[in-house]
Inverse folding.
């Protein structure tokens, strides 16, 4: 998969979050979007995901030698972010089965195996509303990493994880994301230290009255 941003910019009211961004994201590589808190990292990630529109420029998607229409790109991506809801009334097993009904997992993995891989096997039949914040984040990582998609988007993926959870995150990336396009939004190096390219969003903000 390939994503190409051409002179891309996003504005809220009169404030530009980023502008004049030219970049190409290529399958098999990993990228980090960095910057201070509130700088617009998540906004850029959501624009790449097609969840929000950009104010100027263009984002183009391609895969398997053909163009992917922007309104279809959601079929090719999975995302983990602390602000994404999980269905609290479901157990983890039920939630992952529900997720797989519209975004299948890797065919060689069962829901039971996925839960074991993320350390939730003993809590598989417990409703998510009884999970700790760290356990919920493990569920989010599970549904993102094991979805059979070429693009994986990770927004502050280690939020609420303890040291064991951070080690798990690193193992998941190393073991299941090698040939995929991975984009991480974070200002925490331990979340993106594996990334091969760094995009500092602060470099794409107009300064000194620039338009």
């Amino acid at each position: 998969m390939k994503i190409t941003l051409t002179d891309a910019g996003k504005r809220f009211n009169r404030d530009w979050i980023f502008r004049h961004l030219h970049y190409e994201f290529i399958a098999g590589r990993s990228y980090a979007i960095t910057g201070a808190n509130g700088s617009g990292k998540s906004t850029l990630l959501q624009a790449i995901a097609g969840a929000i529109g950009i104010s100027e420029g263009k984002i183009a998607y391609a895969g398997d030698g053909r163009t992917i229409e922007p309104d279809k790109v959601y079929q090719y991506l999975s995302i983990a972010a602390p602000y994404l809801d999980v269905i609290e009334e479901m157990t983890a097993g039920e939630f992952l089965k529900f997720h797989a009904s519209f975004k299948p997992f890797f065919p060689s993995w069962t829901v039971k195996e996925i839960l074991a891989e993320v350390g939730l096997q003993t809590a598989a039949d417990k409703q998510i509303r009884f999970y700790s914040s760290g356990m919920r984040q493990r569920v989010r990582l599970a549904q993102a990493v094991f979805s059979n998609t070429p693009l994986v988007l990770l927004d502050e993926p280690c939020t609420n994880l303890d040291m064991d959870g951070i080690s798990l995150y690193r193992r998941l990336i190393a073991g299941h994301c090698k040939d995929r396009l991975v984009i991480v939004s974070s200002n925490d190096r331990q979340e993106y230290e594996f990334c091969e390219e760094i995009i500092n969003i602060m470099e794409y903000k107009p300064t000194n009255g620039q338009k």
